[in-house]
Amino acid sequence: xxxxxxxxxxxxxxxxxxxxxxxxxxxxxxxxxxxxxxxxxxxxxxxxxxxxxxxxxxxxxxxxxxxxxxxxxxxxxxxxxxxxxxxxxxxxxxxxxxxxxxxxxxxxxxxxxxxxxxxxxxxxxxxxxxxxxxxxxxxxxxxxxxxxxxxxxxxxxxxxxxxxxxxxxxxxxxxxxxxxxxxxxxxxxxxxxxxxxxxxxx
Length: 202
Ligand SMILES: [Zn+2]
Fold this sequence. Notes:
Layout (H helix, E strand, L loop, with lengths): L4 E3 L6 E3 L8 E4 L6 E5 L4 H20 L3 E5 L2 E5 L1 H10 L3 H30 L7 H11 L5 H15 L4 E4 L1 H19 L2 H10 L2
Antiparallel strand pairs: 1-2, 3-4, 5-6, 5-7
Helix pairs in contact: 1-3, 1-6, 2-3, 3-4
The structure holds zinc ion.
């Protein structure tokens, strides 16, 4: 088997990869000390479970209301789609579009693409359109901003709390859990793992 080569993304040193160790840890560039990649067994099933959990949480986050307000006995609730609709009616179509794209559409496409790639790979098969989806995933990643949305909602809740009774909806908890799952997923997801699994699959 030919030696695998890797390039340090910081100093462009061409290095020979060390074999995957059982114990884990990180491979470090000997010239500049930059972290190169994660060592240890590939956890495709864990990644698949996380991406499916993210899909379920994303679905729940959009079905239930994010927040409710109780203003002198008059109660109003809104979902993400409701908020986007209101923004649209208030002549802010760009903001409405950005809200839907960054909190619903792009995370949804990202998680579907990941599940589409991981499910066959876990079964030892090569998923169709792998290269195309892989490129799409890399392009989409910077645009998924669930955490920015959560932060925005929390800031507005605090600001509104002295005007009305603020009732956090089910979706805000789902969004919180989704944010955690996405954070764990992105810390575990090494693209080299996907390529390695693709090479080993038939
Ligand atoms: Zn380096």
